[in-house]
Input
Amino acid sequence: MSDNAHDSHTGPIKTPSQLLWTSFFSFVVPIFTIIGLVYFVTSANKPAAGADTSDYATAVRIQRVGSVELQSGPKKLREGDQAYAAQCAACHGAGLLGAPKFGDSAAWAPRIATGFEALLKSAMKGKGAMGPQAGASLSDLEIARALVHMANAGGAKFTPPAAPEAAK
Output
C-alpha cells in the first residue's frame, strides 16, 4: 500500500534522461523557433529609403504639408442663409448623426430654450457628433449668422448679428 501511495505522488519525469529532454524542448526549441521566425520576417528584400526615384515617389516625398492663403482685401461676410448652405446644410439639411433638421420646430425647441449664447457656444466648441465650427472656413460672425438662420427656421426669434463695421 505504501508503494501505491508513493507512485501517486511522483511526477511524469522519472529519469535524468527524461529531465534533460524536457528541459531541451521547454527552453531551447522555443528560442530557436523565435530566432527562425525573426529571420523569416526580416529576410525580405526591402529597398532602402529614397531608393525609388520615380517621379511619383519624388512628388510624394516633397509634397506640401500646409499652405498659406493671402487675401487682397477684406472678404465679404456671408449672410446666414449663405453660411448655412456653405457649411451647415450637409448635416442639418438631412438630420445626420442626430443633428436637428433645418425647420424642424420640435427638434429645435429645447435647443432654442437654452438661448442664443448657449447655442453659439455649442456650435463653436462642438457638441455630440458635431465638431467645433470655430476656426473653419467661416468666420465666427458667419457661424453666428448661420445659427440664427437655422434657429429662426425652427421657431426662434433671434436677431442676426451685425458686422463689426455696421455696429459702429
